[in-house]
Amino acid sequence: MSQQQSSPAARWRRVVRASRTLAGGALIALGGVITLAGPGPLHAQATGTIEGRVTAAVGGAPLSNVVVRVDSSTGGTLTDAEGRYRIPGLAPGSHTLTAQRIGLSPARQAVTVAAGATVHADFALRETAAVLEPLVVSATREAEQRSNAAATIDVLDGAAVRQSRAAHPNEIMNRMPGVHMIELSGEGHMTAIRQPITTKPVYLYLEDGVPTRATGFFNHNALYEVNIPQSGGIEVLKGPGTALYGSDAIGGVVNVLTRPAPPRPTFDLSLEGGAKGWGRLLATGGTTAGANGVRADLNLTRTDGWRDASGYTRQSGTVRWDHDGGHGWHAKTVLTGSNVRQSDAYTVDAAQLAAGDPINLSPIAFRRVKALRLSSAIEKESGPSLWSITPYARYDVLDLLPYWQLTYDPQLWSTTNHSLGVLAKYRRDLSPLRARLIVGADGDWSPGSFTADRVIATREGPNQVFASYVTGERQYDYDVTYRAVSPYAQLELSPVERVRVDVGVRYDVAGYVYRNHLPVDESPSSVHKRPADTTVSYEHLSPKLGLTLDVAPGVNAFVSYRHGFRAPSQGQLFQQGSALNTVGLRPVRVDSYETGVRGGFGGRMVYEVSLYDMTITDDILTFVTAQNTREAVNAGKSRYRGIEAGVGVAVLPSLRVDASYAVTSQRYVRYVPQAAQPAHDSVPAKPAVDYSGNRVEQAPRDLANVLVTWSPRALRGGRIGMEYNHTGRYAEDAANTHFYPGYDLVNVSVNYLLRANAELFARAVNVLDRRYAELASYDPFQRDRYNPGSPRMIYAGVHYTWER
């Protein structure tokens, strides 16, 4: 790893040379492998198609997210909201279809396919305790059994996401072991996955495998730029990513999947209302005609917010076009857009938290988000080989008046970023040792800009509410371009029966070109220092190693080592504040060791247990100085260890219990943000600040979730759900002088099928109306501050499906 500053032209030449060297070597090795393995088939034969519908054996309701496989393949397809599926490109002859979903009995059919013909095969599945190993795509960007991955990957299928009717992403994400997401204003959120609750860029957010933002322009609220309620599922790959993922994949990779086109003309509508002016319309529709299928989703959401002046509106849409070109050619094009406007609410003190006071001290604070993404995944599969190339484009605008800075550095921010990028991959399956070789490269070019204007706020009333503001001088104004080329290679093989080994390496070459439009400010007393024009570059090699073992039928264990890194964000580098130097911040490095076991018992239980030990070196943290300024500093070394467990048990055919628990230890091994400084001239002495050995702040000691679902006959295929959430104790500050005890919440939900295509539903969040803080923090200037959690909220709605 190296870091240097040079001219843009020299920087780019280094990128091209480095990527060409590694990619060239990988292609030479690949050419040798292909030569030894022999050529694939030269001419594709005519193929056939199987399509059909999966419904509930009782009531006839359509079943979505049922996995339909052909001849026990590792891949498969998922049924849509109307229970439809379609599998093209099948060789003529006899095939065996299998339809499975957790909580349903599996079913099989023998089907004969003729060239150029379409065969229909329908399934009716019954409620039972069937265990289905999830299909995942986040490890290799292709569908595979989770047991093939030497990593912990948790899955929420599309049916679970849509049935939850979550008003905020945390209502569904917190069901996964060791995943904790808190609700901020509107759909704002902070996440903790093997990390503390943080805004740091330590998670890689994807939509169908495409990063939602460039590394340098990370947004911790990334999921409000994705249409979660209408998604096809969510996968979380915990810890540093595989060789296919680079910077930001430290705590985990969150991949939100879109839904394919329905096989027949279909329209689906959901209308929902609730407390505090909550309202949401979800509409989706589409069809497939010949080789082309289209689906369009629309999400319109609004609320007044339970706190004063804390409402938000959201308009999101997704269009997906699937094309089957025949002879192994497939293309998936996705266009996604979001427009979010929300008011942000200030923190409260202990008395206001205990009283459930809806007061908002910052009605002037706001955020305006516009996000637009376009990608097209083009694949060609021929026998044992697959080529894949995914070009993409992004456009993001964020205008923000941050509420948390109003008391110490009020500013108005504007960030604009647009991107062009590509994900390219080649995969070859080899007969010896059941080997699979994957080589590829990712490229990203993301120019953007940032401005920050001083805010002069006026406070009014006995509570000193920030009631109005005007803008003052411009404090930051710069353009910055993030550029990256990252070749990688991964080899999977089975040296002996029941053992699978994967070895991977990724070489990230990345950096920034920064141009300042204001006078350079390097004054020691300035709190808004501005660095001179510069170019910053990073190079890093990340090895990965994993092993999986089939211990017994239905039981699988794994062990892995993964190294990763994260380049500093553009904000950390170039919004210098009072720090002496931020352009010289070092990249974050992580070493993660992990082991786990997963499996099922007797078709009535599925479980997973993981243990991890992760060390982060040169983490970038924000240090609050004695002068109440914030400085980005490399934090030395910190260690994160934990155990995560999840289990799903079908107690009865109509009663299921899903539970998760995680316990963690997160501590600073070495963190001295301020060394002792003797007095000189008129500057007083500064004592050393040493947090080594302390607990990392905002890191809950333990997390738990229990979801009980009951499907009585009286609900005609509907169900009643009761959910328990636990968040454990944590330190509020790095000095460990203040602690928050944690909290426990209960949620309930119910849905009733009026008929197969019409449904009523309702849910209540925080049923016991607990007073709690989503986040608690402490500093010597503001003392204890709390982001209050929502009081009891009740929602209800109706869902209708039409199909021809």
Taking the alpha carbons of the first and last residues, their distance comes to 58 Å
**Fraction of helical residues:** under 10%
Please tell me how large the radius of gyration is: 27 Å
Q: Please indicate the percent range of residues in DSSP E strands (runs of 2 or more).
A: over 45%
Question: Which helices and strands, and how do they pair?
Answer:
Layout lengths: L1 E3 L3 H30 L10 E9 L10 E4 L6 E2 L5 E7 L2 E8 L6 E7 L4 E3 L2 E3 L9 E2 L7 E2 L7 E5 H7 L5 H4 L5 E5 L5 E5 L9 E5 L2 E2 L21 E6 L13 E6 L8 E9 L4 E11 L2 E12 L8 E15 L2 E15 L6 H6 L10 E17 L2 E17 L9 E20 L4 E26 L4 E29 L5 E18 L17 E19 L2 E12 L3 H5 L13 E14 L3 E13 L2 E5 L5 E5 L2 E16 L2 E16 L31 E9 L8 E9 L2 E2 L7 E2 L2 E13 L2 E8 L7 E7 L3 E6 L4 E11 L1
Parallel strand pairs: 2-8, 2-9, 15-18
Antiparallel strand pairs: 1-30, 2-5, 3-4, 3-6, 6-7, 10-11, 12-17, 13-14, 15-16, 17-18, 19-20, 19-46, 20-21, 21-22, 22-23, 23-24, 24-25, 25-26, 26-27, 27-28, 28-29, 29-30, 30-31, 31-32, 32-33, 33-36, 34-35, 36-37, 37-38, 38-39, 39-42, 40-41, 42-43, 43-46, 44-45
